[in-house]
Amino acid sequence: MNRTDFMNQLECLLQNISPAEREEALQYYNEYFNDAGEENEQDVIEALGNPAKVAENIKRDLYGSGYGDAVFQKDITNERAMVQYQQNKQSSNTVDNSTDKENKLSTGTIVLLVVLGVLASPVLIGLASSVLGVVVGIIASWFGLIISFGIAAVALVAVMIILAVVGIMSMFADVLVGTAMLGAGLVCGGLGILFLMLTVAMAGIATPAICRGIASLCRSIFRKKQAA
Questions:
Q1: Nearest one of 89, 67, 65 to 77, comparing CA atoms
Q2: ∠ CA 12-10-65, rounded to 5°
Q3: How many other CB atoms are found less than 10 A from the CB of residue 202?
Q4: What is the pTM assigned to this prediction?
Q5: Closest Cα partner for 44 from 79, 9, 2, 88?
Q6: DSSP track, 117-128
Q7: 118 confidence band (pLDDT: 50, 70, 90)
Q8: Taking a C-beta distance cutoff of 8 angstroms, is the pair 74, 16 a contact?
Q9: Which of 88, 102, 192, 219 has its CA 20 to 30 A from that of 43?
Q10: Count of CB atoms within 10 A of residue 99's CB?
Q11: Distances from the Cα of 219 to the Cαs of 164, 210, 212, 224, in angstroms?
């Protein structure tokens, strides 16, 4: 038992006296403890005895000879006060223990999450790098395809012009050869126009549409998170 327990029990045991007398008695014993000093706390408690004995002496001093006529009633009151004190103290300890367990559980959970995060970091970094690599690869492939189509269109148009010039010049020497070269030039020109149309469609139509779709999808996900 320490000073706090002693004074709390004494206060409970003095509930059946007037507030002024109870306050005066508590102040007297608090000053008694203060005068003795914290290092002599246990010595004071041993010297005073148990709180019930102290409370009985206080009431005997207050009531004098009339104290003996109400001993039975006072004992019942003291017993009830002590039971109430023990119940309050037990409830307080239970709450403190529950709080300590919750704090320990919370701390343990945080430590566990940190450890799991550290252990899983290589896997997470690897997955993130893989996803980033795939995304970058798809984007690079897409724009590489557009550039390839554009280069092919320019090359085919150039071949068409060359074949047309050579074919026209060959017409004077050999009509069949000149005609074949003009036909090949037209085929190359048609393919060049096709690749040029694909380049324009991919760069000017498909790419902006894909970007708008991705942006719309990101906005939808962000709005769902905000709503949640």
A1: 67
A2: 95
A3: 18
A4: 0.43
A5: 2
A6: HHHHHHHHHHHH
A7: confident
A8: yes
A9: 88
A10: 10
A11: 53, 14, 11, 9
